[in-house]
Amino acid sequence: MRAMILAAGYGTRLRPLTDRRPKCLMPVMNRPLLGLWLGRLAAWGVDRAVVNTHHLADQVQAYLRDHGPRGLEVAISHEPEILGTGGGPVAARGLLGPEPFLLVNADVLATAHIPALLETLGAEDAVAVLGLVDEPRFNTVALDQAGRVLGFKGQEGPTAPRWLTYSGLAALSPRLLDYLPASGHSTLVQGLVAALAAGETVLGQPLEGFWDDLGTPERLIMLHRRLAQDPPAGLRGLSPEGPLLLGPGGAPGKRGQGQGLRGVGRGRGGGAWGPAKRGGAFPRGQGGRRGDGGTGGAGRWFLCPEEHQGRSLCLSGTWRGSWRPGPWRHGPADGRTN
After folding, report:
1. Beta bridge pairs of residue 246
2. Choosing a second label site near 311 at 20 to 30 A (CA), which of 60, 80, 134, 200?
């Protein structure tokens, strides 16, 4: 079983965060999205994952060199010019081989068992099975009652009893790639529309469980709030346990008293998250973060991913009795916020 992870994009809705770090390396409880997907693919028995790169490609390639899971071959398909969700798989066709494969957008988080999409693809002789979710903001895929895709919002014609959102997860037959341009930029939707016009079957399969596209800074921070307070099934292993989150190599300091969640990071640029006490400081440990003290019962919290190439990202907000998101800040590797 093979898979392709789309990791070349600019992540424009997450700017300015993605000016420094590609969206596929955005942290979810200090674990990059790309690493989470590689681990899941390996656990499902995928033997080769093709990852395309373009935006900040050196960071993605460095991560893949250092963090590839055992038992999973990772092949890089670099795009000097970004090729899109259709052109990317076409360019990687030789690496993907002649069999159906999974397609994963690296910038989504989901708990569904997506190899089930491949099973449906083989059973129905479809060119594609799209994993779908009900997200009213983006419900653009038209379906009939049998789950066949009729078209997409914005096209002329499709009227449908049901509209759902493409999750960024799919199973594709290599036959679909024949409906896309042989070179240059193209989108997956272009190939799907051409395949439908030729009479091919495209299916939509609702996904169970949690899904989020992490499209904006606010959604990313709200995800961490949920993971800290009420993690969904399938993601509980990412959540901290207890009121103190202690990263490897860290140690609580004398000034580490305070209310709510606190954390100590690891190494020179590592970090964890939590509020500082009133008038106090975030305990440093070995390279942990130092934060601002609050006033009047308020405080500040910080979420800091692991250091990557000398820089770390700190997300900061405010809390007053309960955790709620606030403005974001970048933090350099020395732990200061700016």
Report:
1. 264
2. 80
Radius of gyration of the chain (CA): 21
Supply the DSSP string of 271-285, one letter for each residue.
--EEEPPBT-----T
DSSP label at 243? S
Ramachandran angles phi, psi of 199, nearest 5°: 90, 10
188-197 vs 84-91: helix crossing angle, rounded to 10: 90
Identify the band that residue 240 occupies on the pLDDT scale cut at 50, 70 and 90.
low
The rounded mean pLDDT for the chain is 74
Are 111 and 167 in contact by the 8 Å Cβ rule? The answer is: no
Q: What is the pLDDT of residues 62-91, one digit of tens each?
A: 999 988 888 899 999 999 999 999 999 999
What is the four-CA torsion angle of 35, 263, 111, 164, rounded to 10 degrees?
Answer: -100
- pTM more than 0.85: no
Strands of 315-320's sheet in order across: 273-275, 299-303, 315-320, 322-324
Over the range 58-74, which residues count as b (16 or more CB within 10 Å of their CB) and which as e? ebbeebbeeebeeebeb
On whether the CB atoms of residues 4 and 50 are closer than 8 A, the answer is yes
Query: What pLDDT does residue 179 have?
Result: 97
DSSP 12: G
CB atoms within 10 A of CB 133: 24
